[in-house]
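Example record

Each entry pairs one chain with its bound ligand, N-carbamoyl-L-aspartate.
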Amino acid sequence: MTLAGSHILTVEQFDLPQIETLFSLTDRMVPYARRERITRVLEGAVLGNLFFEPSTRSRLSFGAAFNRLGGHVRETTGFAFSSMAKGESVYDTSRVVAGYMDVLVIRHPEEGAVAEFAAATHVPVINGGDGPGEHPTQAMLDLYTLCRERRLRPGGMSGMSVAFVGDLRYGRTVHSLAKLLALESGLTFNCAAPPELQLPDHLVAHLRERGHRVELTGELADAIHDVDLVYATRVQQERLPSGTTVSGEQQERFRIDASVYEKYCRPRTVLMHPLPRDSRLGTSELSNDLNRHPALAIFRQTDNGIPVRMALFALVLDVADQVEETSREARWYRPARVGVDDTQNLLA
Ligand code: NCD
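Structure tokens for the complex follow.
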């Protein structure tokens, strides 16, 4: 099935062969993401980035990925400066911007709102995060990163064990990544969270229906012991229902630092996080003393966001086979290590 013209709303739209197609194209995008080469394949195309929730990396990464394909980017951020503040409906806003743009990326605080946008427009819409719902492109770049860290391809991860840690209820990146990983076979998911932030029941059922083992625990050590991947997340304070509070002390119980890693993880356990790390307590979910640890893949994840999103745009706008037609060498100064940094890879 081709992705040309498709909305990308959930990872449930994908099967393993499609993920493999996406990742092979992502590999071809790496020289452009690293700024070694230039392509102009989307010259003249315009991306509309509509972000109604805070964002740094997703918004910039979608925009930079589109720019690196030669396209232009127009953005709105927040409700306050959009016509929604004047009472305009999702339908009207969506239909209007579809007349200006070739593709839209939308982030919205309500689950399902991006699908509502998509239903009202005739240009492809990519879900950049819908409340506690999904964040499909984050899961794609997470899985791509895991594949690179472990020198694996999609379909080659059977039997792997994964620890999800932190806010598994309101954190949408875990929801998308769990569903994407569930395409593999015989995985073990250890979910470590305070009870009020545990993985939603429907996701637990989804994983079990597909034959995976799911263990829910309140103990960090039980979850991260001897796993292949630890995926830590931030407590989504902005989405907690009123009355639910997660104390600093509770957050502390799920924090991973170098000594916790050495004590419980395997020497090659990959450490990932969608970012941002919440450092307001003076520490974060993955402590700063891990910053130079070779297992810490968080900045390789963010680097990988560029070629993954470039590949997705190329598939959705149906130019995958034309990327190299305009390819040439980049001439400007760039530091020795730019993006997609393999140098710290565990197996390198
Ligand atoms: C995440 C998000 O917005 O869902 N960030 C991101 O896009 N990488 C995770 C988060 O905000 O905690």
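The chain has a mean pLDDT of 94.
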